[in-house]
Amino acid sequence: MKGAVVAPQPIPTEIGARVLEGGGNAFDAAVAAAAAQIVFDPFMCGLGGWGCATVYDASTSTTESIGFWPTIGERMHPEIWTDDVQGYTDIWHFALFDDFRNILGYQAIMTPGTVAGLGELHRRFCTRPLAELLKPAIEWSDRGYPVPEYIARSLREQTIQGLPHPVRRAQHTPAIRELWQNADGELIERGERYSNPDQGRTFERLARYGPDDFYHGELADIIIRDFEENDAFVTRNDLNDYHVRNDPPIQGSYRDCQIQTSPLPGGGLLLQQMLNVLGLFDLSSLEPNGPEHAYIVAATLSWAGVTRFRHLADPRFWDVPAEELLSEEHAEKIADRIRRGELPDQTALNAPGHTTHLCVADENNNCVSITHTLTTCSGVVVPGTGTFWNDCVALMDPVPGRPNSYLPGRARASAVSPTIVFRDGKPVMILGAPGGWSITSAVLQTLVNVIDFGMAPTEAVSAARFHSEGQPVYCEMRIPRATVASMRDRGMQVEQLPYNYAPSFGRAQCILMEPDGFRAASDPRRDGGSAVFAS
């Protein structure tokens, strides 16, 4: 089957393309590729992780969201650590504790959704047996591969001051340390072989018994036994009661296109709010990344940061005024502030992210956009399973009474924005990005680059970019000095990063669906991006 697959990792991308070439549909390819991403990017995503998918089923002409969000375990409560907080990081607003309890170890884990989410995608939309789709992940887990630069870099680079060095994640528990040490007892380096046979056997169990084994079966027994021995907050009840959320995607428009993106607690609300604002400006008449275009986009990002901190939350636990925030009146109010040169005064909390993404389309117009992640790896691997676990508690709030405070069952708010764009009722673009809180800014600017400036996917994902969540505004070194000077003259605090392609910015993935075929591109901001077309 003809189609396209795009993702940050080359081999998972090829695996998805081979599924299409073998007659599978876009959903088959997405499940196979996502499972392989878990193998080839173990610190960015895992069976102990979470995410969200936006899917378009061409047979029914319907778009759905499959939200496999992480949720707080039942043994946690809002006041549990309030008195122990020692501050917050300037970037990403991680709560700081002297022992990194919310970042490393079993108490940092929230109830995971990745297995349930991929299982739901397979159950609802796939045509090939799960065992067939998981076979590459099984084989590569057992066979192993030389560690690529993108994994080695994620282990050796300290990206956020105040947090534990990434090496500590690879050494935190005996089971993960065993995976990442070489024969000399040193951390595996670039080019050395990494393998995870236990993970392969876990995939085999899922292929044989289905995703329910992870939440209700013998695999759940193994997980909970280890969790109980290590005082985790996630319990058997949390696993047994876990369900994906099939909430309607957020729907909106931009120019002559219709937008379908992730619902709350994801970042689709931020994305559509920003599109509503930018739709009130004639961007196509402006010079891309020239002074006026840059100011409008950066100011729009800054004002969306206000929404993020005041409102972005799990709507089952917090009253989010989504209708008001997405209204024409709200967009006009923000646009007027931008025209007057008004900017919010809150500090931005931008940071690199530990996440991955993939987009798939097939010749029948089926589309899948999936963002999945660990948040960052907690350093926990349950012995005998090879499963890497999330540390989602890291970005929940230890202060009671706030939008993302610790409440059992509450899902973590995030910027994930898997998005499908339609024109005249037909899908024309699939996009998304990994990159923490810079996801929505990456998706926004990629989408605008295509629609307003007519860029091809490679241009759109590669173009110089901004990010902000209040103040300051961050930009890459490639932004012209005249543009930066003009923005500063208008009162905007601009920090030009010392990178032409900032690794801390979201890494957009994009497919264009055109009458004569597909065009696709993966962001060059991280080593390993790949786009493949199936014949």
Description:
With 535 residues, this protein is α+β, with helices and mostly antiparallel strands. It has a domain at 252-351 and 429-508: Orthogonal Bundle (Serum Albumin, Chain A, Domain 1), CATH 1.10.246. The protein is built from 18 helices and 19 strands. The chain has helices at 10-21, 26-40, 114-125, 130-143, 149-156, 166-169, 174-180, 197-209, 212-215, 218-229, 236-240, 268-278, 291-311, 322-325, 328-339, 439-451, 457-462, 481-489, and strands at residues 3-7, 50-57, 62-68, 145-146, 193-194, 250-254, 257-261, 354-362, 367-375, 377-381, 388-390, 419-423, 426-432, 466-468, 473-475, 494-496, 509-514, 517-522, 530-534. The strands form five sheets. Strands 3-2-9-8-1-19 form a six-stranded antiparallel sheet, with helices on one face. A six-stranded antiparallel sheet has the order 6-7-12-13-17-18. α1 (10-21) runs antiparallel to α2 (26-40), α2 runs parallel beside α4 (130-143) and α13 packs across α18. The longest helix has 21 residues, at 291-311. It is globular and about 60 Å long. The model is unreliable at 348-352 (pLDDT under 50).
Name the descriptors.
535 residues, alpha+beta, six-stranded antiparallel β-sheet, globular
Query: Beta-strand percentage?
Result: 15-25%
**Assembly type of the shown chains?**
single chain
Question: What fold name goes in the CATH topology slot of the domain at 252-351 and 429-508?
Answer: Serum Albumin, Chain A, Domain 1
CATH class of the domain at 252-351 and 429-508: Mainly Alpha
Give the strand order, joined by hyphens, for the main sheet: 3-2-9-8-1-19
State the shape. Answer: globular
Helix amount: 25-40%
State the major sheet.
Answer: 6 strands, antiparallel
Radius of gyration: 22 Å
Which blocks of ≥5 consecutive residues have pLDDT under 50?
348-352
Structural class: alpha+beta
Mean pLDDT: 94
CATH superfamily of the domain at 252-351 and 429-508: Gamma-glutamyltranspeptidase, large (L) subunit, C-terminal domain
The second-level CATH architecture of the domain at 252-351 and 429-508 is Orthogonal Bundle
- Count of beta strands: 19
